[in-house]
Specification:
By secondary structure, this protein is an alpha+beta fold. The protein contains eight helices and twelve strands.
């Protein structure tokens, strides 16, 4: 992983975020009233990171809260042989490393930029002032943590209840756009890391879905041909049904 320095930090400029600020959109999606989050923006600083830059390493004390405005980050941990494996991908818009900062603990994993990524950040000391003095911050992050806890519980359920081919079908089904197109940003090896398997198993799962005419595959570009049958292959409920367990 490269530790190359990003561009110098500059004040966050919301006017440069088309069509609206990603942080503002995230706040609205998490229940903030329109305009109520504007007081939070002046304290943020922004950077653009190149692929391979590292936001933080395991064992580091958190010095800032990071929000991804555009792009994505790989969260990785080392296995028993020292090889780094992807635990999950974090895509914009959203926070990375927030739990460690709030808990006052060192990072347990590394965050490596996967593609050119725009990041807004706030210094840890300023964040703690907002956490104590601005109820909106605590409320929004509580919802963020609750969502991530639910995702982690669903991931554990997938590991126990779904086969690898079913997990691959689920990932494609959930990422497919309105036109059925899925752009896999991860390599086959990275997908295998995320699912706890090997890249040949991922390739066989994709090939089987293609053989059944549920998808087409062209490198990392996948197109869903039959969304209903793909959901059935993933053991997902029909569109509009309950999509996840709530604990």
């Amino acid at each position: 992983m490269s530790g190359a320095s990003p561009a110098p930090r500059k004040p966050c400029r919301r006017a440069e975020c088309p069509p609206t600020c990603a942080l503002e959109r995230w706040c609205a999606a998490h229940g903030a009233e329109p305009g109520s989050a504007q007081a939070l923006f002046p304290v943020w600083r922004s950077n653009v990171y190149a692929s391979g830059n590292v936001l933080f390493h395991p064992g580091m004390t958190p010095v800032a809260l990071f929000f991804l405005c555009a792009g994505s980050v790989r969260v990785t941990r080392a296995d028993g042989n020292g090889r780094r494996k992807i635990v999950r991908m974090v895509r914009a818009p959203g926070f990375v490393g927030a739990r460690a900062l709030v808990a006052g603990q060192p990072y347990a994993a590394a965050a490596e930029v996967a593609e050119p990524t725009a990041v807004c950040m706030i210094d840890a000391a300023r964040f703690r002032e907002l956490w104590c003095g601005e109820p909106l911050v605590a409320r929004l992050l509580a919802r963020e943590f609750a969502g991530k806890l639910g995702a982690a519980q669903e991931h554990l359920a997938d590991m126990a209840l779904r086969t690898i081919p079913q997990r691959v079908a689920k990932l494609l089904s959930q990422r497919a756009g309105q036109n059925g197109e899925v752009e896999l940003r991860e390599s086959r090896e990275e997908l295998a890391d995320m699912m706890g398997t090997s890249s040949p198993v991922i390739c066989r799962a994709l090939a089987d879905l293609r053989r059944r005419r549920l998808i087409t595959v062209d490198g990392r570009a996948v197109r869903v041909l039959d969304a209903a049958r793909l959901r059935a292959a993933a053991r997902l409920p029909r569109e509009g049904g309950l999509s996840r367990l709530v604990y």
